[in-house]
Design goal:
mainly beta, seven-stranded mixed β-sheet, 10% helix, chemotaxis, 12 strands, 2 helices, OB fold (Dihydrolipoamide Acetyltransferase, E2P), globular, CheW-lke_dom, five-stranded mixed β-sheet
């Protein structure tokens, strides 16, 4: 079996093995902590990732909506995810994450995309008690290193 076919088989069997893929991205510097936090989204919620296109801002549109973008003949709202999470992008909003939740399509503007990690669901912990914020749903432990304690925050729409 070649590597391409193995990768397809591995992806198809993720749910059977209680695993998932997490796309890691950055929103900029946290206004509270003054450091760049790592955020994540389940790859199954992503439709596509595109470089930041031009978008239209209709009159009266309020934050955190940046505007509307036409992607593949579909008009999609663009949400300023750093503003929602209390972050300031250092290099600008460079990437759009086109997502689909409950048959609703939206685009999240983010600063950068890091990589995709495969994790066990056991590495994910609820954040309701750990984080004082209504948008953070979970915290994923990215490795077993207690010194670096690499974490990714999962956000809800």
């Amino acid at each position: 079996m070649d590597n391409f076919q193995k990768d397809i088989d591995d992806r198809a069997n993720l749910t059977l093995s209680n695993r998932f893929e997490l796309l890691l991205f950055r929103l900029g510097t946290s206004l509270h902590e003054q450091k760049s936090e790592l955020f994540g989204i389940n790859v199954f919620k992503l439709r596509e990732i595109v470089p930041m296109p031009a978008f239209t801002r209709p009159a009266g549109m309020k934050a955190p909506l940046l505007g509307m973008v036409n992607i593949r003949d579909q008009v999609i709202p663009v949400i300023d995810l750093p503003a929602v999470a209390g972050c300031k992008p250092e290099t600008g909003l460079n990437i759009l994450l086109i997502t689909e939740y409950a048959r609703s399509v939206q685009a999240f503007a983010v600063e950068s995309v890091e990589n995709i990690m495969r994790l066990d669901w056991q590495q994910v912990h609820t954040a309701e008690k750990a984080v004082n914020g209504r948008y953070i749903t979970s915290i994923a432990c990215l490795d077993d290193n207690k010194e670096t304690n690499n974490l990714a925050l999962g956000a809800r729409r």
